[in-house]
Specification:
The structure holds 2 protein chains of 2 kinds. By secondary structure, chain A is mostly beta strands. Helix content of chain A is 0%, strand content 58%. Chain A is globular, with a radius of gyration of 13 Å. Classes of the chains: A mainly beta, B mainly beta.
C-alpha cells in the first residue's frame, strides 16, 4: 500500500527564518510527487509536480526537491503570507493520489 | 482558463437525511473528476473518480455514491447520512490519460451531520 508521511506536523517560524518540510513516501511505481498549499477552509492549491529523483522546482520563496524516498519543501525567508498547511501527495502506477496529513506552517511577523 | 465550482459551501444536515453535493468544471472538455473527503488532521481520502460520463469508480465502501450525468458535472449523494459522514468534501479535476495528470481542487463543501 502506498504511504506518505509528512514531518513535522506543525512548524512555527519567525519571519525570515528559513526551514524545510519533509515528505517521505513508499509507492509502487512513482509517476509523480505533488505539493499543494491549503489555506484554512479552502481547497488545496497546486504548487509543484516532481517526476524523478534529482529534480528541483522553485516558485518565489518555495523550492521543492525529490530523492528516491523523500521530498523536501524548502521555505526561504518566509513571510506571514506563507502561513498555510502544505500537503504532499504521490501518484502511483494506477494514477491515484495518496496524500500525507500535511505540515501546518505558521510564520510570525 | 479552467474553473471548478462546488456547492453548497457549507451544509448542516440531520442524521438520516439525504445528501447531494454538486461539482462543475468550466473551460475544459472530458476531464477526469474526483471526490475526496478530508477529516481534521488527516490526509485527503479519495472516495470516487470518473474518467467519463457514466463511468464511476469507488475507492471506499461507504454510505455514499457518485454520478456523472454530464461531461463536466460530478455529483456526490447519500440516501441516509451518518454522523461519520461529517467532513470537508473536495472535488478535483485533471486532464491526464487514464485518470492521471495534475489534479486541481475546488473550494470544498463543509458538511456537518448532527
Amino acid at each position: 500500500e502506498d504511504q506518505v508521511t509528512q514531518s513535522p506536523e506543525a512548524l512555527r517560524l519567525q519571519e525570515g527564518e528559513s526551514s524545510s518540510l519533509n515528505c517521505s513516501y513508499t509507492v509502487s511505481g512513482l509517476r509523480g510527487l505533488f505539493w499543494y498549499r491549503q489555506d484554512p477552509g479552502k481547497g488545496p492549491e497546486f504548487l509543484f509536480t516532481l517526476y524523478s529523483a534529482g529534480e528541483e522546482k522553485e516558485k518565489e520563496r518555495l523550492k521543492a526537491t525529490l530523492t528516491k524516498k523523500e521530498s523536501f519543501l524548502h521555505i526561504t525567508a518566509p513571510k506571514p503570507e506563507d502561513s498555510a498547511t502544505y500537503l504532499c501527495a504521490v501518484q502511483a502506477r494506477d494514477y491515484k493520489l495518496s496524500f500525507g496529513a500535511g505540515t501546518t506552517v505558521t510564520v510570525r511577523a | 482558463s479552467q474553473t471548478i465550482h462546488q456547492w453548497p459551501a457549507t451544509l448542516v444536515q440531520p442524521v438520516g437525511s439525504p445528501l447531494s453535493l454538486e461539482c462543475t468544471v468550466e473551460g475544459t472538455s472530458n476531464p477526469n473528476l474526483y471526490w475526496y473527503r478530508q477529516a481534521a488532521g488527516r490526509g485527503l481520502q479519495l472516495l470516487f473518480y470518473s474518467v467519463g460520463i457514466g463511468q464511476i469508480s469507488s475507492e471506499v465502501p461507504q454510505n455514499l455514491s457518485a454520478s456523472r450525468p454530464q461531461d463536466r458535472q460530478f455529483i456526490l449523494s447519500s440516501k441516509k447520512l451518518l454522523l461519520s459522514d461529517s467532513g470537508f468534501y473536495l472535488c478535483a479535476w485533471s486532464t491526464g490519460t487514464s485518470g492521471g495528470g495534475t489534479q486541481y481542487f475546488g473550494p470544498g463543501t463543509r458538511l456537518l451531520v448532527l
